[in-house]
Amino acid sequence: MTDTDDAARQTMIRRGFAPEYATLGWNVIGVAVLTVILPSGPPPGSTGGERQQPC
Known about the structure:
The chain is mainly α.
């Protein structure tokens, strides 16, 4: 590999990882928000309707 090829490869790797890091950051923020919201809300899966008895 030449220096030019190596530099181009490094640029492509950085460009490829940028969206991955953005997605990871977004997911971390989402988990943080859910850990704050969920304990104060109703239990997950509760719809307020009647429960059906199993057969």
